[in-house]
Amino acid sequence: MLKRLIRITNDLKLKHKLLISYVLVVMIPVLIIGLAVTSYFRQQALDNAIGQTIINVDKIKSQTATMLRVPTDISNMLMFNTDLKEIVNRRYKSVVELTSAYLAYKDFQEYRRLYREVAGIRFYSTNSTLINNLEFIPVNERTKESYWYKEALKTTSIGWFYIPGNEENPVHRLSLVRKVPFAEYKTEGVLMIVINQEELNGLLRQEQFETLITDEQGYVVAAKNTELVGKTLDELDFGVDLQSQPKGTIEADFQGEPSNIVIDELGPGSSFNKLKVISVFATKNIVKDANQISQIGMIFITLVLVIALLLVYIISFLTSNRLLRLSKHLNKLALGDLNVTSRIDGNDEIGQLSRQFNYMVKSINELMTQVVETTEQNNRLEIAQKEIKLKMMASQINPHFLFNALESIRMKAHIKGEAEIANIVRLLGKLMRKSLEIGSGKTTFRAELEMVRSYLEIQKFRYGDRLAFEIHLDPMVEKMYIPPLIIQPIVENAIVHGLENKEGQVQVHIHICMKDGMVRVKVKDDGAGITPERLAEVMRFVSGPEEEEKSRIGMRNVHQRLTLTYGDNSGLQINSMYGEGTEVSFTLPAGGNQHV
Residues in domain HAMP (predicted)? Predict the structure, then answer.
């Protein structure tokens, strides 16, 4: 899959690659980030609105509880009011007597005058001698069947209900309802304290969102929008049954718009039922500012991206056009037009390629001129070399004549008792014969060391006791093939430079062994050694291409033959300490050296 994608990418034009890269790397990520930021701001606005609404609902609960504490305290006092007990349990014989009693009882009016939270106080009694004066009301069948009256008779605790009201009982407000028992009379009545609707609505008037207070039947007892008071939750288009919803925050469609609804419960002291506080806000109103800012941001981002896309297209067009021009020049050069010249301006990479192209054409022309001149010169040299070779052949000494002459000298020395001279002449002849026989082929470690030993014996004859040598050859190695004349130049270098500037004997150690699948060759002497500066120059020359020092040509030749045959890791390694000696070593792979 990856190879196929790479192949498809390589087949695309540069202009298309730049455009696709811009879209994938810049445009799409920026749009994704923009949408994510927009969503984040929108959610933050919603969370802040929900948090503020919860705080406002808590505040309304606290204020409402404080307000309802007043009618609660009044009901507690009226529970044990003696005058109230007498007036509702007395059997009146005439209207005059009843009217006198009504006029004498001022507590309900006094409480209503003292507390603005109270709109009115009523007492519902089963005393049939009472007349409805909107404060003392005899209970009729309609009242007995009402929900709030039945609930109130179940307990002496306080209940909070919205009283729908009728012609006989025009309340239409949230009211405190409480049973008042009279044990000595074995009677009971229901006390109703009507809450001031203006005061209750005033708690919600300053709220930012639509806020409602409902009773347990779903009646709206107070609202920011006063037109909703008296309606039930079912009549309002919430799209969900809020009456059965627990405390918390829900999402629903209110009047056809997505909204968030915060629901909480208020249970005033000594109450057997609870009120609900509901706050509603439309989602679009909350996120409107965030959406507007996000839209403006997205417009700017889109505009910037489009402008950037246009710039990328222009740049890609200009770049690809210049590359096409350079490609045409290359095609002309490939067809043999060596007079082509690229005229692409600019200091960027394409401009540099254009100039390099011109340099290349110029260099090709110069090289072709040099090749022609070199060919002519080589032809002349070849003719001259043939002439020299003919002259050399005329004066060449026959090698057999040279070996026969050396053998005659050796025999003459042996007859006269010069055994040492005879031996040296024998070694010299052997060394010369081996050198002539080797040619350009291969030899073995054993044959190579025979030449080295002959060379060392001749040098020992020359230097006497000043030279001592030791040769160690691992039997596992001696039949392995190596290029000829690899070790002898190193030994020669050790003797020539080791004996310089040192008095006394110089020892040369030649050690060849097999270790870890590698053949390790080491030539060590305890001669004059090399200074660090001089060692750096030697290593630079040995590894370099130029032949500057005639005395180091053999070492450089050995190094190059080793690296060409076995790789860079098999080159010469030279370690030397000035005044203490020098060690030259190299390592060959055993697998690359076949046995005889």
Answer: 317-369
CA distance 572 to 558: 8
- Pick from 70, 168, 73: which is nearest to 124 by CA? 168
CB burial class (10 A; 0-12, 13-18, 19+) of residue 433?
A: middle
Give burial (CB, 10 Å; 0-12/13-18/19+) of 520: middle
Distance CA 321, CA 225 (A): 71
SS3 of 276, please?
Answer: strand
Give the model confidence (pLDDT) of 524-549 as tens digits. Answer: 998 888 888 888 888 888 877 655 54
Whether 312 contacts 22, CB under 8 Å? yes
- Beta partners for 252? 259
Token pair, residue 121, equals: 């106080």
| Burial (0-12, 13-18, 19+ Cβ within 10 Å), 139 | middle
259-283 in b/e burial notation, b at 16+ Cβ within 10 A? bbbbbbebebeebbbebbbbbbbbb
Q: Is the pLDDT of residue 248 over 80?
A: yes
3-state secondary structure at position 271: strand
- Given a contact cutoff of 8 angstroms between Cβ atoms, the answer to whether 123 and 192 are in contact is yes
Per residue in 374-424, pLDDT (tens digit) is 787 667 656 544 543 444 343 444 454 455 555 556 565 667 666 667 667
Token pair of 397 as six digits = 């000494």
Q: How far apart are CA 217 and CA 160, in angstroms?
A: 10
- Show the DSSP H helices in 416-520 as ranges: 419-438, 445-463, 488-498
- 41, containing H or E segment: helix 28-79
Tell me if residue 237 falls in helix, strand or coil: coil
Average pLDDT over residues 558-582: 85
